[in-house]
Amino acid sequence: MFRFEHTEFLKLLLMLPLMLVVYLLYMQWKNRVAARFGDRHLVERLTPTVSRFRSHLKFTLLMLTIASILLALANPQIGSKIEKVQREGVDLVIALDVSNSMLAQDIQPNRIERAKQSISRLIGELQNDRIGIVVFAGKAYTQLPITTDYGAAKLMVSTIKPDMVPVQGTAIGQAIDLAMASFKEDKAGKAIVVITDGENHEDDAVAKATEAAKRGIKVFTIGMGLAEGAPIPVYRDNQLAGFKKDKSGSTIITRLDEAMLQQIAQAGGGIYVRASNTQAGLRKVFDEISKLEKVAYDTKSFSDYEDRFQYFVALALLLMAANFLLNERKSRWAGKLQIFKPETHIRS
To answer: Virtual CA dihedral for 326, 329, 330, 336, nearest 10 degrees?
Structure first.
């Protein structure tokens, strides 16, 4: 297992291309100045000790030195010891609606962002539970398989956007079906949390929730939205361009379908919670999930990491030494090449 302990230093590597651009611009300016004095070949003959190659080489060594120092500061590490850890927890799959109606702002900042914030907070409180993520609109996709890697889970949540599923709609049944397929075959308590406004429901989600309950999987639902509803914003170039309209030109109001979400939760043996501007409902649902039977399972993880920064420190020192010893001008031996040979006079 390989990792960097301090990844923030890796971002500084982005300044190397900028340094290269500045250096190339400087060399172009230098060439233009030299051209004012005459022909390039003549200028080179008049300055026999100046070496363009050495200037380029010194700059390359400087770039490599900086890169080595930054990699050393990031401290690359290699996992040296694997240990098995026994944990007890439940398996949880969150199915998040990413259809355009989730952009409605009746819940601030909007429905989908509020849901993402709540999911991230929940992940931060998990300890031994396994979590997976399914996103859906007109179709459902697995965003994150069941895992105990909470860092990866938070990263996946941060990348969720309404336009990531091109087919619009609300395929809750398909999302529940895909979530059921995500669970591992063990006796762990299993739960599916569907977070949606329930609008434009297309398939038989109640039947899928009933099937999940027969498999020992509880289905919970969280309704994102207020009873009065809200228009659906339309963005162009990250700027609000208006609100979605129907064919007659009237603004479409997206409303929460509470009745349908209550039926899904009842069929799945779970509970329904409606989100609001003060709470997103995920805490209440997770309190219910935590009551499920937990099962012990083994997981492997790297317990010890060995630092490898010293190799990059040594490389940086060697490069700095080479850069210090390398002169931009040619050595005395270059004079023995006799670039300026005396003219041979022809005797008459």
So the answer is: -140
Query: Nearest 5°: CA angle at 85, between 80 and 86?
Result: 170
> Cβ(224)–Cβ(114) under 8 Å?
yes
Question: 10 Å Cβ neighbour count for 72?
Answer: 20
Q: Is 337 exposed, middle or buried (0-12, 13-18, 19+ CB in 10 A)?
A: exposed
- Residue pair 210/180 in contact by the 8 Å Cβ criterion: no
**Tens digits of per-residue pLDDT, 95-152?**
999 998 899 998 889 999 999 998 998 898 888 888 999 999 989 999 999 998 899 9
4-60, pLDDT tens digit by residue? 888 888 889 999 999 999 989 988 887 777 677 656 666 566 555 566 777 888 889
Determine how many CB atoms are found less than 10 A away from the CB of residue 120: 15
How far separated are the first and last CA of the chain, in Å rounded? 83
| DSSP helix/strand/coil, 126 | coil
Task: Report the CATH superfamily, name and number, of domain 85-300.
Answer: von Willebrand factor, type A domain (3.40.50.410)
| Domain residue extents for the chain | 2-75+308-337, 85-300
Band (69; pLDDT cuts 50, 70, 90): very high
Each residue of 192-248: pLDDT tens digit? Answer: 999 998 876 667 899 999 999 999 999 999 999 887 888 888 888 777 878 888 888
Alpha-carbon distances of 67 from 6, 9, 16, 62, 137, rounded to whole Å:
15, 10, 8, 9, 44
Tell me if 127 sits within 8 A of 89, measured CB to CB: yes
Greatest Cα-to-Cα distance within the chain, rounded to the nearest angstrom: 118
Hunting for tokens 């006796």 — which residue is that? 187
pTM confidence score:
0.61
Residues 286, 289, 291, 296, CA torsion sign: negative
Residue 185 is classified by DSSP as S
